[in-house]
Amino acid sequence: MTLLAPWVFALGAALALVVVALHFLTTRRPPARVLPTARFVPVAEARAVSRASRPSDVLLLVLRVFTVLLVSAAFARPVLDAPGPQVRSVVLVDVSRAVADTAAAMDSARAQLTEGGALVLFGGSDAARSSLSAALVRGQREAARVARGADSVKLVVVAPFTQAQFDAATQSLRDTWPGALTLVRVPIRVDSALGAQPQLVTSLADDPVAPALGVLPARRGAQAVRIVRARASGSDSAWARNSGGVLVEWPLSEGDARADGVVLTGEASRAESRAVAATLVAPLVRMAVPSGALVQARWRDGTPAVVEDTLGAGCIRHVGVGLPIAGDLTLREPFVRFLARMVAPCGMETGAVLSDSSLAVFAAYERGTGVAASLLVTATSAETRLAAWLLAAALCLLLGEWALRTRRAR
């Protein structure tokens, strides 16, 4: 049994010592002496307090001490322990399609797993990407479960750690874990299959995106791509949802162009050192994009320029970068690199991985390797009943003490 508030029990133990000390102080009637001036002494029972070498009323002492200890144990939040090793681990392993070798990732996870620990799979074998935020929530829930009877708990994450695995909530969820993370990186999958040529749906006869599509390098990834140069329709969304393709919603420019720059990057935690994949600086038009989605590119002032949402088996990528109709911008190398990222698989996972230094900050090695089990264990309904039983036993002892004291007084 573990006490979640041991200081309460320590206070009760100190009070029990006070009770024992009081039993060594006894009141007794002093011996009678015949004094000539006894007539001046008030008529009252005379008693004196003295120290005894043995405690008085041993049975009463035992009842009182056990009553105090039971009450303090009940309020110290006792929890039942499960037998097991002192250090347990909760291992989160990514099994999504982003992992190059799922079997090797599972072997790495089992090597980190200890007796009494838990293995948590996240991502799903049919998912194009996984969420570290969801994994951390499940991992902390399992850590609270396996912490009973352990001295400390380690949280281990086995994943490729791509930028797409991080979202706006990942860092705040990581901060709720009061210790370090053990991170094991596994290789990311690189799809060797050549993807089909992206489909361009536009109302312009000479759309500026069309020439750039012709000079794109061979695209890796089996996901089909449809670029819609307008607001996506219901049929476009249904196509992405059912086929697992990439729908790129890239409306025609609205407004005046101005010299501006857009930087491709992944939305990750604040621990990430953002690696710039491509920077496009040209007369561009800023257009609104939905909020709350995964940011794939930003304007130079940090405003989201390209965001991505999961859509069934596929995804929809909202591009808020308006292009000039005339000019050779779309034939330049920076725009070709930008377009290559716009038609990349969902999550833009290929090559978009966090650096080792970023992972070191995210893991926070300076905090130690494990978390004390007492910080994770929470009382269940069964353990609440245990406290109630302790209070009931203390009440029975208190009634017995009262009955014994009344009987001796008589």
Walk across the major sheet and give the strand order: 9-10-11-16-15-14-12-13-17
Radius of gyration: 36 Å
As an assembly, this protein is single chain
* Alpha-beta content class: alpha/beta
- What is the number of strand segments? 18
Q: Main β-sheet: number of strands, strand sense, barrel status? A: 9 strands, mixed
Mean pLDDT, all residues: 78
The overall number of domains is: 3
Keywords:
410 residues, 32% helix, 3 domains, five-stranded mixed beta sheet, nine-stranded mixed beta sheet, elongated
Short description:
This protein has ten helices and 18 strands. It has helices at residues 6-23, 58-75, 102-112, 132-146, 170-175, 209-214, 234-243, 333-342, 356-363, 381-409; strands at 2-3, 25-28, 48-51, 78-79, 87-94, 118-122, 152-159, 181-185, 199-201, 225-228, 246-249, 258-264, 279-286, 294-299, 304-311, 314-319, 321-322, 371-372.
